[in-house]
Every structure is written in C-alpha cells, then in structure tokens.
Amino acid sequence: MNVNHVNTDALNAVLTVKVDKNDYESKVENALKDVRKKASIRGFRPGKAPASLINKMYRKSAVVDEVNKLISENISTYISEQKLNILGEPMPSEKQESIDWDTQNDFEFAFDLAFAPEFEVKLSKRDKVPYYSIKVSNEIRQSYIDSICGRYGSYEASEQAEGESLLKATLTELNADESPKDGGVSVEDGMVSVMLVADEAEKAKFIGTKVGDVMVVDVTKAFPNETDRAALLKVDKANLETIEPLFQATITEVKQYVKAQVNQELFDKLFGEGNVTNEQEFHQKIDEDIKQNLKGDSERKFFVDLRDKLIEKFNIELPKEFLVRWLVAVNEGKFTHEQVEKDYPSFEKDLKWQLIRDKIASEQEFKIEEQELVNIAKGYIANQMMQYGMGQLPEEFIEKYANDLLTKKEERRKLAEQLIDNKVVTWLKEAMKLEEKEVDFEKFKEMMQA
Predict the structure, then answer these.
(1) SS3 of 5, please?
(2) Do domains 2-114 and 128-136+278-449 have the same CATH topology?
(3) With contact defined as beta carbons under 8 Å apart, do 437 and 130 qualify?
(4) Whole-number pLDDT of residue 182
C-alpha cells in the first residue's frame, strides 16, 4: 500500500492512495468466512453454504468495505506521521477515475487536501484596538433607579381599582339567569389581578370598583387559561367543565402596586443597613452597578474590533473552493452550494479567528485545567438559573448541574473553546495597546448595529 501527496499550491494538495490486492485479500477472506458462518441461504443449513457461492454473492461488497477501511486508516496515519496541518477533511478528488469493482484487483484513489495557512503572530504596543466604555448618563441612571423602585415596591390598600390593581373578591357560582346555583362553587378571598384579565369587556368591569361593589363576571372569558381559572376557583382543572361560567364577585379588598420610594429604607434593602446614607452615595453605587452591567457589552464590542483588526493585519488566505465543497458535503444536503457561498464570508471570518486563536494558544502554551472548566460551567448554570428567577440556588446544586453539563461532549467542547478565547483575549490585551474611549449609550448602540 502506498500513500503520498503532491502540493498543487501553498494551500492545496492531492493525496494519492494505491491499494494492491495483497493489501486487502486476507481481510476479505476473513470477512467472507464470517459471512459464511452467519449467512442464511435457502437450500443450505446455516454455515454450510458453499464457499464459492458466498464468494459470488458477497465478495464485491467485502472488497469495497475492506478497501474503504484501509483507505481511511492509512490516510489518518499518513496525515499524522507527516504532521500535515489540514483544514476540514480529505475530499474525494473531482478528477478521480472511475473504479470497476467487478474487474479491478488494484486500485488508485485521489483525495483533495487543504492546508491551514502559515502565518506569524507578531504584535506590539504599536498595534492599537479601541476599547469603548459606556458613559453613564442621567437617563440610564434614572431608568435603573426606576427599575429598582419597581422591583422593591409593594401592594398597598387603594380606594378604587385601576388597570394594574390586585383585588380580593368573594366569588359565587350563578345559573344562566344569574341566580345563585344550589351547591355551586363559592370562593372566599379569590385573588384577581386586573392586568391579567384576558377579555377587555370583563376587565372593564373590575376597573373603578371599590370595596363592597358587586358584579357578575364571566370567568371563562376573563380567564380562558384553564390552569389560571382552576387556581382562581380553587378547584381541580378536570372539574372545570361542570362549572358555570357566570360568577357573582363581591370586592373585599383593593390594592395598588406602589413603587418603592428612594429613601433610607430602600438604601438599606439594597446595600445593607447604614452603608449608603444619602442620594449622592446611592447614585455612586448605582453608577458602579451600571458600569459593571455594561462591561459585558464593552467586552463584546472589543472582541469584535480585536478579531477584525487581527484578521486584517495577518491577511490570512484560505482555500475557498475546497472549503465550500467541504461545507456542502459535511452538511449532507442541508444546504445547497449557493447557500454555502452566500454564508461563506461569515464562516471564513470565524475560521480565520479560530486559526489565529489556536496559534496564539499553542505558542503561549495555554492549558485548560479541569477546575477551570467546572468554574466556567458553574457560571453558565448560575446565569441560566438567574434568567428563570432561580438566582439563589445552593452552591452544591449549581456544581452538580455544572458537572452534569460537562459530561455532554459538545457542551464541554464549547466551554473549552470559550476558555481558550478568554485566555487568548486576556493575552492580547497585554500584547497590544488598548485605546480607551468613553461614548454615550446611543452612540455605542449605533456602533454595535453597524
């Protein structure tokens, strides 16, 4: 068996694999013996069919299988031994001559290879990248304060119901003629959020009501969601179909949500008792929180600018024709050649960054420790849980979920890549000059959307 390659240019090569009969014959014979043992052929007991019949029926497929195995194994070995830094995977050459499996004993196969381009990473403080910090404006600060006051507000007694009021009512099931239903459902202290009433006509009945007001409501229209309706009426959802839609509602309590006031009570809730004692200190704390929250946006913008700067500086060339063919092939009919061509610029940019990142990581000998993976997985889990309003999960639960996540091969790979990204970006911040610039939020949004 013979494997070799010839470069057609700096980024492409043709790899040739020659397979002689001696390379595969013994493997084919063994394969046919296994087939004979297991084959169930009409007229013969299992394992007793003549070898000549087995050979006639299965030899061709056995040769195809064994030759393909040999090709795959030997190409992998050759690429490894020759230390070929390839992109994608070897692709059957478009100039491959046809194979006659019925008559040929010796075969020659051609594969196209694409090489990762050679380039040097030379950087200094003369290489500049902008780093944008977002200026905390009065408008941004006030929006944060409004949000905080909204979160720390409370329901207080109100004289009259409004669109966002919370009501308590005694609910009594009625017949179709609005008379009380014998043995019907009766609910004390039924909770009604006016904002969540689905039907506008039913919602209008609640708005403007006061304690002691009595009205008839259609609970089916007001609360079409069966889970919500069952909770209001304090019955099993399966029993809803036996309940009449009309109910008499007697208002027993009206509450309105009132935002928290900016005062010492709020300061203590947010920052601990006595740590903030006036509005100036409060604004300073809020500004610190805003800057921390906006730092992620600054980092994302910096990464985009950094990536584009390095891609432009190193001017890496890629074998586009090969990569388009490979992308079409590996996606197995999911995308046409035209669709891949359209999306290729984005893929090319990602691949160029990956090559730059991996070269820096290799030269700087960056390693990933298991504990680093656990920590980044824990951070990912904590953020996910916070989005679902579960920000106070015990540490042991977060660690368990993180370890479970790391058992999934694809998720582990993504987290490892994120770690390498972080290490490389941190190194680049030291190797290059960051031009720090402060911009207002609107200008920053325009830059991110450009």
Answers:
(1) strand
(2) no
(3) yes
(4) 95
Q: How many other C-beta atoms lie within 10 A of the C-beta of residue 396? A: 8
3-state secondary structure of 110: strand
**Edge-to-edge, what's the strand order for the sheet holding 107-114?**
2-7, 12-19, 107-114, 91-92
Output the six-digit token pair for 404: 């479970």
**CA of 138: how far to CAs of 96, 264, 286, in Å?**
69, 21, 11
Helix (H) or strand (E) holding 134: strand 128-134
Residue 35 confidence (pLDDT) above 90: no
Q: How far apart (Å, rounded) are the C-alpha atoms in residues 170 and 345?
A: 64
Structure confidence at residue 391 (pLDDT): 59
Distance CA 129, CA 315 (A): 17
Residues 226-248: what's their mean pLDDT?
A: 95
**Domain topology for 154-258:** Chitinase A; domain 3 (3.10.50)
388 pLDDT exceeds 90? no
Look up residue 92 and give its two tokens: 């059957």
Q: What is the mean pLDDT of residues 442-446?
A: 89
Segment among 39-43, 180-184, 439-443 with least mean pLDDT: 39-43
Give the integer Cα–Cα distance in Å for 84 and 111: 14
Torsion angle in degrees (nearest 10) through CA of 21, 24, 29, 30: 170
Q: Summarize pLDDT for 122-151 with one digit per residue, the tens.
A: 999 999 999 999 998 999 999 999 999 988
CA-based Rg of the chain, rounded to a whole angstrom? 35
φ and ψ at residue 128, rounded to 5 degrees: -110, 140
Kindly tell me if the per-residue pLDDT of 390 is higher than 70: no
Model pLDDT, residue 333: 78
User: How much is the pLDDT for 392?
Assistant: 64
- Half-sphere exposure of residue 354, counting CA atoms within 13 Å on the CB side? 12
Q: Rounded to two decimals, what is the model's pTM?
A: 0.70
Q: Nearest to residue 51, comparing CAs of 24, 67, 29, 25?
A: 29
Instruction: Kindly state the tokens that stand for 329.
Output: 């092939």
Rounded to an integer, what distance in angstroms lies between the CA atom of residue 191 and that of residue 330?
56
CATH: 3.30.70.1050, 3.30.70.420, 3.90.660.10, 1.20.120.530. Which one for 2-114?
3.30.70.1050
Query: Using CB atoms within 10 A of its CB, is residue 165 exposed (0-12), middle (13-18) or buried (19+)?
Result: buried
Confidence of residue 389 (pLDDT cuts 50, 70, 90): low
d(CA 298, CA 134): 7
CB 88 within 8 A of CB 340: no
Boundaries of every domain in the chain: 2-114, 128-136+278-449, 154-258
CATH architecture of 128-136+278-449: Orthogonal Bundle (1.10)
